[in-house]
């Protein structure tokens, strides 16, 4: 099955499971540039479960739209555990969704460093619970060109949401 077909199937399954569970989802994206939201909203009926998508590509957008602390960005950088945690917390709070995913990474071909090479992507999945929000964070190092890194990030984000369900 070609990559795009697998991605479409993953999004369809996620939307179906969200609708069946009566839950909603939101996304805060940086390196994926709205691709997660696009995959979800490409599925007919997604309006029943998709509430919000924010592309916060710049640090300023992360701060002003999602409430990421300037200190977090200065101390840890945009591609960090601390930043994706704050992105996920911000989008779930803004949207009122039950679940959220946040993604920030270095897709390349430039921008990498010894500490954060091209292909480094941080993810945070958030689940609203009665009195708090539960977060799960992961770092991945993907191989490939810019397109491959971004596509792998979208797949990982959607799979992580399905795991929450």
How does this structure look, described?
The protein has 165 residues and is α/β, with parallel strands linked by helices. It has one domain: Maf protein. The protein contains 6 helices and 5 strands, in the order αβαβαααβββα. It has a 5-stranded mixed β-sheet with strand order 2-1-3-4-5, sandwiched between helices. Helix 1 (3-21) runs parallel beside helix 6. The model has no long low-confidence stretch (mean pLDDT 96).
Q: Which keywords apply here?
A:
globular, Maf protein, alpha/beta
Topology:
Blueprint: H1 3-21, E1 25-29, H2 35-41, E2 50-55, H3 59-66, H4 70-76, H5 81-95, E3 99-105, E4 120-128, E5 133-141, H6 146-164
Parallel strand pairs: 1-2, 1-3
Antiparallel strand pairs: 3-4, 4-5
Helix pairs in contact: 1-6
Percent of residues in beta strands? 15-25%
Biggest beta sheet summary: 5 strands, mixed
Pick out the low-confidence regions: none
**End-to-end distance:** 25 Å
CATH class: Alpha Beta
CATH architecture: Alpha-Beta Complex
CATH homology superfamily: CinA-like
Using DSSP, what is the number of strands? Answer: 5
- Give me the side-by-side strand order of the main sheet: 2-1-3-4-5
Q: Could you please say which CATH topology applies here?
A: Maf protein
Secondary-structure content class: alpha/beta
User: What is the overall pLDDT average?
Assistant: 96
The helix/strand order is HEHEHHHEEEH
Shape: globular
Rg: 15 Å
Structurally, how many domains make up the residues? 1
> Helical stretch count?
6
In percent, how helical is the residue content? 40-55%
């Amino acid at each position: 099955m070609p990559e795009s077909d697998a991605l479409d199937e993953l999004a369809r399954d996620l939307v179906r499971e969200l609708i069946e569970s009566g839950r909603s989802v939101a996304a805060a994206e940086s390196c994926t540039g709205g691709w997660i939201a696009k995959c979800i909203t490409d599925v007919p009926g997604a309006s029943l479960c998709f509430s919000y998508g924010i592309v916060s590509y710049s640090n300023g957008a992360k701060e002003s739209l999602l409430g990421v602390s300037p200190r977090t960005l200065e101390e840890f950088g945009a591609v960090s555990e601390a930043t994706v945690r704050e992105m996920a917390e911000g989008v779930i709070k803004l949207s009122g969704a039950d679940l959220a995913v946040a993604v920030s990474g270095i897709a390349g071909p430039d921008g990498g460093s010894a500490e954060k090479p091209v292909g480094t992507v941080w993810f945070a999945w958030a689940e609203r619970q009665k009195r708090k929000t539960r977060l799960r964070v992961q770092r991945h190092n993907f191989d490939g060109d810019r397109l491959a890194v971004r596509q792998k990030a979208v797949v990982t984000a959607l799979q992580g949401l399905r795991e929450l369900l």
